[in-house]
Design brief:
Elements lengths: L7 E3 L2 E3 L1 H25 L1 H13 L6 H13 L2 H5 L10 H16 L3 H20 L1 H6 L1 H6 L11 H18 L5 E3 L2 E4 L2 E4 L7 H18 L3 H32 L8 H22 L24 H22 L19 E3 L15 E9 L2 E10 L24 E9 L7 E9 L2 E11 L2 E3 L2 H13 L6 E9 L5 H23 L4
Antiparallel strand pairs: 1-2, 3-4, 4-5, 6-7, 7-8, 8-13, 9-10, 10-11, 11-12, 11-13
Helix pairs in contact: 1-6, 1-13, 2-6, 5-6, 5-13, 5-14, 9-11, 10-11, 11-12
Length: 516
């Protein structure tokens, strides 16, 4: 390049300023074309993200992520202009990997994985069209795009449990007696329960998003950035436990007159604002000096005159389109209806279900079966939610499918864990204990996907994807069995349910298999 900037050397031959501008613009135009095609091809996936931002306060920050990322890229424009554009075939396998992940998630109707896959494609598309050096120079702004994906709700159950543990432990340290049953606990002044809004997941997502942005803008050494991000993750977890403890104490000391209504929520967000202010204030003391900026000269070799960029773009476009076309070519396989009888056994006699104020909640199943059976005066209830053809909002593995709706049911969950039942190698159930006054229910729950029982939701989704991919369909059934018991009859209740599963499992599994 000449000092005056009038000529740019291309393989030893001088170029005019107009040609140099074209050299810079052509890769940008190719990238914009590739991103536009990706947006059009996966518009439903992107649309699902926007819908979640719009309806959920937890993920409303998603509207800000793209503008922030674009601004961060704009602030590095001088450094980016100094890096030569080198289309790179090495990014293509990663585009294919993201596309295949999207395909599997699409077949299993897992929106969050579809969304992660299409957003993760964006950095790889830039790598393929612009080259690895330029993509690496935009690493944080591109990685920041992942915060646009509405993910994190899977943390709610574990965070609810942690919040309950923290609150009960802190109240007992204060010297106040507490009686706890699951997520419910009682003080002398009144009763409390930890619900989804108390989990603190909103705080975690907001804190981690702000913490990553703050670390990038404030620090320049990697270890400072990593340390602050770790603090931004840990702080809201501890702060939410303290918030729950203080709310309980305010309610207790005010004889349940304060912190039990809308002021409960206002207090929570005020506390979060104070905690974030303190976190950023403390983080400001670690600010390090900005390293000296080394101006890079533009590299002389340009790939514009070669056919490589065109072949890269054409291959990228092919890899973007193939996965939705593949998904569209896979049709649903209709499974047979579910039939349950009293089995060819004299052990179990059909009776009328005796629990009328509780049943599991499943969204839009193809078929619901409720039944009850008796064996030597001991009764077992059976609930089956069968999905013949799973689709979005009519699927077995869904956050809306719950064992107990605490807002509508008078029952409450006192304990839940996963147990092996030793009937089949590796078979396990989710065991729950429900309580209503002096009445108690022992509940076993599991899922059956194309004849395979499992309690692992991730494995279940993989089974659904694989079933559709190989033409076996994705028929699935949620199985719930239950029996009443007294406090000293828990072992006997488990034995009763185990005997029932032993008699009925072959029939239930057979019913979940698709007809050829």
């Amino acid at each position: 390049m000449s000092d005056g900037g009038n000529l740019i050397m291309n393989g030893g031959a001088p170029m005019s300023q107009q040609q140099a501008t074209q050299v810079r613009r052509t890769p940008l135009l190719m990238l914009l074309a590739v991103l536009a095609v990706q947006l059009l091809v996966y518009v439903e996936t992107y649309g699902s993200m926007v819908q979640t931002w719009w309806r959920s306060e937890t993920f409303a920050h998603g509207f800000l992520i793209l503008p922030i990322s674009l601004y961060l890229i704009w602030t590095r424009r001088e450094q980016l202009q100094a890096i030569d554009d080198q289309p790179d075939f090495r990014g293509l396998p990663f585009i294919a990997l993201c596309g295949f992940a999207w395909l599997l998630a699409n077949l299993a109707d897992v929106l969050v994985i579809q969304q992660l896959a299409v957003v993760a494609m964006i950095p790889v598309l830039i790598w393929s069209v612009y080259g690895l050096k330029k993509a690496w120079a935009m690493a944080f702004p591109l990685a920041f795009l992942l915060f646009a994906v509405p993910a994190g709700e899977f943390l709610v159950p574990s965070m609810m449990e942690f919040t309950a543990d923290f609150t009960v432990y802190a109240v007992r340290l204060t010297g106040i007696p507490v009686f706890r049953e699951g997520l419910y606990f009682t003080l002398p002044s009144g009763s409390w329960s930890v619900v989804e809004a108390c989990s603190g997941v909103r705080y975690i997502i907001a804190s981690l998003t702000l913490g990553c942005l703050y670390a990038y803008l404030t620090y320049y050494s990697y270890w400072r950035r990593a340390l602050f991000i770790l603090l931004a993750l840990i702080t809201p977890i501890i702060a939410n436990g303290i918030r729950a403890y203080m709310i309980v104490m305010i309610g207790h000391l005010s004889s349940m007159k304060l912190a039990v209504g809308v002021d409960h929520l206002i207090y929570g967000w005020l506390w979060f604002g104070i905690v974030m202010f303190i976190l950023f204030w403390v983080g400001s003391f670690w600010r390090d000096e900005k390293p000296a900026v080394v101006k890079l000269k533009a590299e002389k070799n340009s790939t514009l005159a070669t056919k490589k960029p065109l072949w890269v773009v054409l291959t990228v476009l092919s890899l973007l389109i193939v996965w939705p076309l593949w998904a569209g070519s896979i049709g649903q396989i209709k499974a047979k209806d579910f039939v349950v009888s009293a089995h060819q056994s004299n052990n179990w006699q059909p009776i009328e279900p005796w629990v009328n104020d509780w049943q599991p909640r499943y969204t839009n199943p193809s078929q619901i079966i409720t039944a009850a059976y008796q064996n030597n005066s001991k009764s077992v209830g059976l609930y089956l939610a069968h999905y013949v053809e799973q689709r979005q909002d009519a699927e077995l593995i869904n956050a809306n499918n719950i064992l107990l709706d605490s807002k509508e049911s008078p029952w409450h969950l006192t304990k839940q864990e996963i147990k092996g039942i030793n009937l089949e190698e590796g078979m396990r159930v989710i065991e729950s204990q429900l309580k209503l006054g002096d009445k108690k229910l022992l509940v076993w729950q599991w899922n059956i996907i194309n004849g395979t029982p499992t309690v692992n939701n991730y494995y279940a989704k993989l089974l659904e994807s694989w079933g559709r991919l190989v033409g076996e369909g994705n028929a699935a059934t949620g199985v719930v069995i239950y029996t009443a018991y007294e406090q000293d009859e828990l072992v006997e209740a488990r034995q009763l349910l185990s005997g029932f599963v032993s008699d009925f499992l072959p029939q239930i599994k057979k019913n979940t298999l698709d007809e050829p």
